[in-house]
Amino acid sequence: MDDEIIIRKQAIELHLKGYSSVDIAQKLGKSRQWVHKWIKRYQSIGGDDWYKSLSRSPRQTKGRTPKSIEDLVVNIRKSFEGRIYSQTGALSIMYEFERLGLKPPSIPTINRILKRNNLIKMSREKQIKKKNIPTVLHSFNKWIWLGPNTLLEDFVFTF
Fold first, then answer.
1. What is the mean pLDDT of residues 115-129?
2. 77: exposed, middle or buried (C-beta count within 10 Å: 0-12, 13-18, 19+)?
3. Cα(59)–Cα(74) distance, rounded to whole angstroms?
4. Strand order in the sheet with 135-139
5. Which of 38, 37, 32 is nearest to 10 (CA)?
6. Which range (9-18, 20-29, 58-67, 109-118) has the least confidence?
7. What are the helix (H) ranges across 17-102?
8. Res. 146: pLDDT tops 50
9. Distance from chain centroid for Cα 46
10. What does the alpha-carbon distance between residue 155 and residue 158 come to, in Å, rounded to a whole number?
11. What is the rounded CA–CA span in Å between residue 3 and residue 143?
12. Can you give the residue ranges of every domain in the chain?
């Protein structure tokens, strides 16, 4: 069992025996406010779970897109992937919302939803930059081979 949980239970046992919160705090090496917090938690929750720490995360996230809208964006995006020459970006999804007669979320919101669901594909230029793939450049009727972070001037081919 965790040491902190044992101390919390000892604090309540001492409180039930009639010790003051100041005495309990001195015996356990905690602050008076800490003792009051756990006495209050014990009195309000009671039962078996009073000594457990509660989550500090917000119970509700304000401004978060509703799950139904997020699912609809994902489904529309996936339906676009099966079509040939289909645009799959946020603007196309927004137009599809309007075609369905629904109020669309903003373009940045659609992009955040797509990113959260791993539905954004990286452009060829970003893939090259990220993976450091060698590329070939055309310059003044000469092809220049670029290796990873190097320009190999010895290997210049003319066509």
1. 75
2. buried
3. 25
4. 135-139, 142-147, 150-158
5. 38
6. 58-67
7. 21-28, 32-45, 67-81, 90-99
8. yes
9. 34
10. 10
11. 70
12. 3-45, 67-116, 124-158
Cα–Cα–Cα angle for 114, 132, 137, rounded to 5 degrees: 105
Write the DSSP string, 9-21. Answer: HHHHHHHHTT--H
What is the three-class DSSP state of 155?
A: strand
Strand pairing of 135-139 and 150-158? Answer: unpaired
CA distances to 83, 123, 151, 154 from 147, in Å = 36, 20, 6, 12
Architecture per CATH, domain 3-45, reads as Orthogonal Bundle (1.10)
The mean pLDDT value for 112-128 works out to 79
C-alpha dihedral over 70, 75, 81, 86, to 10 degrees? Answer: -80
CA nearest to 108, candidates 76, 71, 61, 65: 65
Sequence-ordered list of residues with C-beta below 8 angstroms from that of 104, at least 6 positions apart, any chain: 93, 94, 97, 98, 110
